[in-house]
Backbone:
């Protein structure tokens, strides 16, 4: 999960006022322009018909709050696996119980690892070093979106485990090539960083790229370039200290993430 900032409601160029829609799916292109064509939750690229997802469900479970049907503030993009009836669906989604891409620096909460017994699959796990409160919230979020699911059925629906592993391979290969090339007298760090950011744009699963290249400021700068990969919350990175990932809620001492 990538920390997101999709910005304020888009402006209608005809009126100069906030855009007004009558169908929540009309936000699709605005969301793609603001945060890219990725699932806001698992960060898998969505190559066809991304779902416009209600952060607070429009048809929640009995006793849970109803989300605004068409409000910009309640919209994100999601893949079928994260937003389907088997995962988030109409379940309550409160920032006090889960980590959310628009309220937390989720890079500090989740890590992607190779499955312990299935090396061709990668799953999401809580980051090491979390306290008890943070670990519970991280695991709640993982369970909500079923990020440890491995779907090997013939009629497979959920490919996240497979795509994560492919992205992990791509990150590791690019990191090795980058480190080897740094020793060359012809090495152009700026061009290499742009190429890596473009590669990350194609593969998604951005926390892998941010974590592996965290010690390479030139690459981090391009990974955070909103002209290459839109929508990443800039306030979650300390530009004065090598783009170190920072807590988004530093005023919350028990759970500052």
Residues:
């Amino acid at each position: 999960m990538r920390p997101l900032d999709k910005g304020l409601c888009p402006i209608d160029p005809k009126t100069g006022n906030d855009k007004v829609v009558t169908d929540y799916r009309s936000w699709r292109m605005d969301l793609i322009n603001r945060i890219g064509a990725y699932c806001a939750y698992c960060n898998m690229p969505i190559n066809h018909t991304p779902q416009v997802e209600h952060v607070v469900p429009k048809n929640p479970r009995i006793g849970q709050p109803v989300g605004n049907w068409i409000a910009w503030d309640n919209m994100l993009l999601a893949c079928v696996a994260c937003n389907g009836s088997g995962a988030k669906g109409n379940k309550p989604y409160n920032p006090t119980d889960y980590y959310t891409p628009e309220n937390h620096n989720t890079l500090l909460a989740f890590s992607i690892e190779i499955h312990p017994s299935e090396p061709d699959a990668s799953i999401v796990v809580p980051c090491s070093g979390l306290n008890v409160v943070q670990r519970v919230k991280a695991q709640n979020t993982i369970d909500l979106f079923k990020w440890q699911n491995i779907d090997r059925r013939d009629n497979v629906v959920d490919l996240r485990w497979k795509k994560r592993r492919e992205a992990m391979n791509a990150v590791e290969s690019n990191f090795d090539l980058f480190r080897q090339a740094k020793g060359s007298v012809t090495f152009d760090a700026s061009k290499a960083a742009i190429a890596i950011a473009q590669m990350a744009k194609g593969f998604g699963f951005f926390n892998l790229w941010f974590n592996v290249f965290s010690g390479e400021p030139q690459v981090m700068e391009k990974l955070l370039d909103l002209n290459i990969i839109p929508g990443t919350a800039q306030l979650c990175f300390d530009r004065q200290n090598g783009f170190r990932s920072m807590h988004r809620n530093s005023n919350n001492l028990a759970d500052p993430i």
Remarks:
- The helical segments are 28-35, 80-83, 132-145, 160-181, 189-203, 206-212, 217-223.
- DSSP finds seven helices and six strands in the chain.
- Strands lie at 51-54, 75-78, 110-114, 122-126, 237-238, 244-245.
- The first strand starts at residue 51 and ends at 54.
